[in-house]
């Protein structure tokens, strides 16, 4: 599912006067966000290059970016520890669930089932592109906020692009899980039913996340925000 968790220092949260931000933590988070931005940008560039070089043959995308996608996404496990140890203000539970849902796709679906029905299906490519664009915007947004730079166009992108990227990303994830169902029985019947349950969770989960982002958009880009900027 799409990620909305923050990677900005926890000291900035709350209505009270903020405590001084630990410069070491701040430097680490800046480096983490830019490294993540670079990783996702690389996957996006390689995906687009592959599609252009093959005339849009999405069946070739996994062979080029599959391993890179797995490790870039796995690196997001650090975000759970960022929340756990109070480096950022995101709730641990929410962060863990969002990261786990992505890891299910890259490890529990694409890596576990090295089959064309999963890896070479069009949904893998649309999922990858949606993830990459979302994460490039998200990590650049967080990195710049850490140095008190928040370009208005980047804020607009973060709270507007989700209208298209969330349905594409979440829909592609659900389709990838569905594509793996015929092969899940070979692992264990319980895993098959677990994946079926995950597919059933997607519609309400998507609704919650989507409406949350719409509310966030009103908060950051609504009329009241526009008046303050005038």
Automatic annotation (TrEMBL):
It catalyses: a very-long-chain (3R)-3-hydroxyacyl-CoA = a very-long-chain (2E)-enoyl-CoA + H2O. Keywords: Endoplasmic reticulum, Fatty acid biosynthesis, Fatty acid metabolism, Lipid biosynthesis, Lipid metabolism, Lyase, Membrane, Transmembrane, Transmembrane helix. It comes from the Eukaryota. Its EC number is 4.2.1.134. It is an enzyme of class 4 (lyase). Its main location: endoplasmic reticulum. Signal peptide: none annotated. InterPro entries: Tyr_Pase-like_PTPLA. One of its GO terms (biological process) is fatty acid elongation. It is found in: Endoplasmic reticulum membrane; Membrane. Pathway: Lipid metabolism; fatty acid biosynthesis. One of its GO terms (molecular function) is very-long-chain (3R)-3-hydroxyacyl-CoA dehydratase activity. GO terms for cellular component: endoplasmic reticulum membrane. It is a multi-pass membrane protein. It holds the Pfam family PTPLA. The chain crosses the membrane at residues 25-48, 121-141, 153-170, 190-210. Coiled coil: none annotated. Belongs to the very long-chain fatty acids dehydratase HACD family. Catalyzes the third of the four reactions of the long-chain fatty acids elongation cycle. This endoplasmic reticulum-bound enzymatic process, allows the addition of two carbons to the chain of long- and very long-chain fatty acids/VLCFAs per cycle. This enzyme catalyzes the dehydration of the 3-hydroxyacyl-CoA intermediate into trans-2,3-enoyl-CoA, within each cycle of fatty acid elongation. Thereby, it participates to the production of VLCFAs of different chain lengths that are involved in multiple biological processes as precursors of membrane lipids and lipid mediators. This is Very-long-chain (3R)-3-hydroxyacyl-CoA dehydratase. The lineage of its organism: Eukaryota, Fungi, Fungi incertae sedis, Mucoromycota, Mortierellomycotina.
